[in-house]
Amino acid sequence: MQKFNSVEELVNTVQPVDPVYCIRPNSIKSACSWFKSHFPGNILYAVKTNPNERVIKYIAESGIEKFDVASINEIKLIQKNFPKSRLYYMNTVKSREHIKESYFNYNVRDFAFDTKDELQKIIEATNNAKDLNLFVRVSISNEHAEIDLSQKFGALPSEALGLLRLAKAHASKIGLSFHVGSQCMHPISYSKGIKELGNIIKKTKIMPDFINVGGGFPSVYPDLNPQPLENYISEIKKTFNNLKLEKKPELMCEPGRALVAESGSSIVRVVLRKKQKLYINDGTYGSLFDAGVPSFVLPTKMIPSGRVTSKKLTSYSLYGPTCDSIDYMKGPFVLPNNLKEGDYLEIGQLGAYSLTFRTKFNGFYSDQIFEVNDKPIMSMYNKDILSSYLVA
Fold first, then answer.
1. I need a labelling partner for 238 at 20 to 30 A (CA). Which of 71, 204, 283, 326 fits?
2. pLDDT surpassing 60 at residue 387
3. How large a percentage of the chain has pLDDT more than 90?
4. What does the DSSP 8-state code read for residue 336?
5. Would you call 193 helix, strand, or coil by DSSP?
6. Domains and their CATH numbers in the chain
7. What sign has the CA pseudo-torsion 179, 181, 185, 188?
8. 315 in Cβ contact with 276 (< 8 Å)
9. pLDDT tens figures, 251-286
10. pLDDT tens, 308-325?
11. Is 349 within 8 Å of 262 (Cβ atoms)?
12. Distances from the Cα of 136 to the Cαs of 44, 111, 198, 217, in angstroms?
């Protein structure tokens, strides 16, 4: 993979016609280091967030060698690159064939479920194995999340009582887990989830070996400025300790977005300008899904190309290259008002989900990926970068 000191150097050297994706190794390493220093337990990287092999390599090199996997292909990917890592099959809906393959071929021992039927599948597909670690996923409120996951996954707390008892009868070790939803904007969601698990423990009198607080840890965007991550960890620690359990379960989390969002950006080119509408060569069917469907406002900057850049700024909307009218990103994207065809833009905060959501619709697809060593446009971990962009 070709490497550059900055996106400016990349553009001046390559002068790309198609969209280019950038990976920042230093950003990944900084985020991993922060979580390792602050989270009081085991950290599982949520592979679905960004399964690029280079990204996973930098995460593993940073000391995070446990992975939350959602499919047999994610399992194969991690096993191929890091055969000694531990995999946690935390998707609560799995086929029998994939459960069997993951257990017997890839040494997966940790499985999540939220129904009796799914538990039965796990037991039968593993031939009633005695070395299973089984996690009951509990549904909790996702009221503070930008993307709600509670309607699709999780057992109601009342249902979880029976599921935990059943798991106890079949598992070597048991766990309770929840997920606050993607891009959670308030730490209180974690304390509510932990308290709900505490109620289940009291009612069943079953002490879990693991408590998994899931993912949902946020990144920062121009229109989504969450509290510092320290507040999230503090809330988790305080509520976990307040359970006053005789035997402390092992604490776990599954960060994805918070580890990789800042590390990725896309370099796009303006194909046409119609007043305050910019038609660019990437869009919602490419790496910009988050800017279109959930309508995240992404940090954007013009990459200097030798001509004078206007200091006057304008709010733009973006349109992708396909012939579908929903290939549209409302924004606002604040950029110099003298933008024109051929100008390059960097769109940041695309380390999470952008690579996995790309399609080849209308034949528009680019797999040009480079590494850069400059800083991201915004950062939860570097307050100088964060404040300068928000002020602008």
1. 204
2. no
3. 90
4. E
5. helix
6. 3-22+261-391 (2.40.37.10), 25-260 (3.20.20.10)
7. negative
8. yes
9. 999 999 999 999 999 999 999 999 999 999 999 999
10. 788 899 999 999 999 999
11. yes
12. 17, 9, 13, 21
β-strands 173-177, 133-137: how paired? parallel
DSSP string for residues in 101-132: HHHHHH---EEEESSHHHHHHHHHHTTS-SS-
Tokens of 73: 């292909």
Which tokens in the block code for residue 120?
């039965």
Please say whether the beta carbons of 227 and 188 come within 8 A.
Answer: no
Token digits of residue 289: 């899904």
d(CA 235, CA 35): 15
- Alpha-carbon distance of 99 to 105, in angstroms, equals 10
Q: Which of 333, 261, 259 is nearest to 301 (CA)?
A: 333
Length of the chain (residues): 392
- pLDDT value of residue 389: 59
pTM greater than 0.90 (yes/no): yes
Residue where the block lists tokens 């308290």: 195
332: three-class secondary structure by DSSP: strand
Show Cβ contacts of residue 316 under 8 Å, excluding neighbours closer than 6 positions: 276, 277, 278, 331, 332, 333, 334, 335, 339
Among residues 55, 64, 63, 10, which one has the least CA distance to residue 253? 64
- Confidence at residue 386, expressed as pLDDT on a 0 to 100 scale: 57
Find, among 65, 104, 101, 69, the residue nearest to 85 by Cα.
65
For residues 185, 190, 193, 194, the Cα torsion angle rounded to the nearest 10 degrees is 180
